[in-house]
From TrEMBL:
GO terms for cellular component: membrane. InterPro entries: TPT_transporter. The keyword Transmembrane helix applies. It is found in: Membrane. PANTHER family: SOLUTE CARRIER FAMILY 35 (PTHR11132). It is a multi-pass membrane protein. This is Sugar phosphate transporter domain-containing protein. Its main location: membrane. The chain crosses the membrane at residues 47-67, 79-100, 112-134, 166-185. It comes from the Eukaryota. Keywords: Membrane, Transmembrane, Transmembrane helix.
């Protein structure tokens, strides 16, 4: 009974009655500022955004590893804070100049996204500390295992069904990670 009440209150805190903040169709219909700068229409935007994510993610991991380990930098949280301030400044500048559109900051938006941001900051802090002590290959292995756990959690908590191809690719990732760990132990022994 207690768990059922907790689940209802948890679902209520995640549900937004008026507007789905991530609804793509609704975001297309929103009024854009008159000074909105139109970017060229790219046919395969998902490929472009995925490629941009890969480049940004890889470069951030390598730069952070270089700064934290290469220079013996002991202020990982300060580095993370600096990077977040730069990110907010860039997004704010692009939004104010009309290149991108952002949601107006409201208490309702803050209340919805605060738990996600707390978890995100925790992920950044643990990533920063682990990057200082773990090599990039091992961190990549852990991130891939986290992807498998995330997909499993999405299935369990949100009842999202993935097709067979997704599960096959995730299992291949897990097999690949076990082979990487085994090869790493063989290199250490030999």
């Amino acid at each position: 009974m207690r768990r059922e009440i907790g689940n209802r209150s948890l679902m209520r805190s995640f549900s937004v009655d008026d507007v789905d903040l991530e609804d793509v169709e609704a975001s297309k219909d929103r009024d854009r500022p008159s000074h909105f700068l139109r970017l060229p229409n790219i046919q395969n935007q998902s490929l472009l955004s995925g490629l941009a994510y890969c480049i940004a993610s890889c470069s951030m991991i390598l730069v952070n590893k270089f700064v934290l380990s290469g220079y013996g930098f002991n202020a990982g949280i300060f580095l993370m804070l600096y990077q977040n301030i730069v990110s907010v400044t860039i997004v704010s500048t692009l939004s104010l100049s009309g290149v991108i559109s952002t949601e107006p900051l409201t208490w309702k938006l803050i209340k919805v996204w605060l738990p996600v941001n707390i978890i995100f900051v925790g992920m950044l802090i643990t990533s920063m500390f682990s990057l200082k002590y773990i090599n990039v290959a091992m961190l990549t292995i852990l991130k891939n295992v986290a992807n498998v756990l995330t997909a499993s959690g999405e299935t369990y908590f949100f009842k999202k069904q993935h097709d067979r191809q997704v599960w096959i690719s995730l299992m291949l990732m897990v097999c690949h990670e076990f082979m990487n760990v085994w090869a790493g132990f063989e290199c250490l022994r030999g």
